[in-house]
Amino acid sequence: MLSPLRLVRRLTAALHRHTSTVAAAAAAAAGTGTGLKGHFDFKHLKATAAEMEQVIAKRQCDGDVHEVVRLYDAFRDQAFEVDRMRSWRGKVAQRIAEVQVQGGGAGGGGSTTTPMSIEDALASSDLAQLNEHGKRIKQALVDMEEELTRASERLNTAALKLPNRLHPDVPLDKPVVVYTGGTKTSEAARDHMAIASSLGGLVDFENAAKVTGSGYYYLTGAAALLELALVQYAMNRAVARGFQPVLTPDLVYRRVAEGYRFEFSLGFLNKCNPRAGYQPRGEASQVYNIEGKEDETNKLCLVGTAEIPLAGMYVDQILAPEVLPIRMVAFSHCFRREVVWMQYIKC
Questions:
Q1: Nearest to residue 221, comparing CAs of 241, 236, 199?
Q2: Are 288 and 274 in contact (CB under 8 A)?
Q3: More confident residue, 273 or 41
Q4: HSE of 68, CA atoms in CB hemisphere, 13 A
Q5: Which of 30, 188, 254, 294 has the fewest Cβ atoms within 10 Å of its own Cβ atom?
Q6: Residues 63, 56 contacting (CB under 8 angstroms)
Q7: What number of helices (H) and strands (E) belong to the chain?
């Protein structure tokens, strides 16, 4: 049979485990847990900060890798203090339980308003002082956890401004011709819009401009059939190589789109420490949000690529090695401001 003191200790430990589980579940439900938040390898980023700084300069982005590293260090320090305070809370709660079992009371007549160190609390048999100390720890922990959440949000907001890394072979000044096919004609060069306008009404820019704006178009007749045929051709080619065809939703939760964030590092290109993915940047890749009365956790946005809902298919799942690799090919609308961007890059 367990002694009363050992029984209390076991019950106290079980209570702490239950409290931690409930807190984690509540955080996940509120969108502040791990789950679907953007994931960053901050340790790797800190180790390669100089490399990222060069990428930012080459891409001419607004991200500040040194600010991200500073926020990361601050977040780690705060997280350490929060963990230490949680440990103190558990030790004080256990001491209170021990004193209660031993029949301890307000020994010594000490004032309950006098702050105690954790060492004094663990040695004290004054139940009133211990309870007061426990309340102070509880309130301090609430304040610290709230600040830790804010620090996490500041860190992720700053990290989202960082660009994807560049392949070392990407030219920075002038394009490099890697392959030339076909025979060059003497005909004057025409861009895609000029070619489309010459196809006898198969591409309708005029009426699309009335509906959507300049640069958009309708595909009609053979042009519409050609696009469908190209999609079917591409899907068939992928399926023949063992890929599962998927038609994805056009809407996803905003938290899913934010969670689809991975580091594409030079380590992957060197076939070590693989980190791969897609991280759109700039005005051309603006996310279109859906207005509604939903809370922040359930807000929807239009997908900018089929990769986002594809990755979302396996959210919060742990995949066994034997089911990998999972090969999928998807077709979807891609809601990005590509047309506006083309105004700036048109040759």
A1: 199
A2: no
A3: 41
A4: 26
A5: 188
A6: yes
A7: 13, 6
| Tokens of residue 193, six digits | 């819009």
Q: Are 118 and 92 in contact (CB under 8 A)?
A: yes
Choose among 166, 153, 120: nearest CA to 268. Answer: 166
Mean pLDDT, to the nearest integer, of 160-182?
A: 84
Q: What size, in residues, is the chain?
A: 347
- What does the DSSP assignment read for 39-63? ---HHHHHHTHHHHHHHHHHHT---
* Distance from C-alpha of 232 to C-alpha of 235, rounded to nearest angstrom: 5
Is pTM, for the whole model, over 0.70? no
Distance of alpha carbon 72 from alpha carbon 156, whole angstroms: 9
What tens digit of pLDDT does each residue of 283-315 get? 444 678 888 776 766 888 888 888 889 988 888
Distance in angstroms (rounded) separating the CA atoms of residues 253 and 235 = 26
DSSP state of 35: T
Give 54-92 as a DSSP string.
HHHHHHT----HHHHHHHHHHHHHHHHHHHHHHHHHHHH
The two structure tokens encoding residue 234: 């591409």
Q: Cα(51)–Cα(10) distance, rounded to whole angstroms?
A: 51
Report residue 251: phi and psi, to 5°: -120, 140
Q: Across all residues in the chain, what is the average pLDDT?
A: 75
- Helix, strand and coil content of the chain, in percent to the nearest 5, comes to 55, 5, 40
241's enclosing H/E stretch is: none
Q: Assign domain 192-345 to a CATH class.
A: alpha beta
For 93, other C-beta atoms within 10 Å of its C-beta total 19
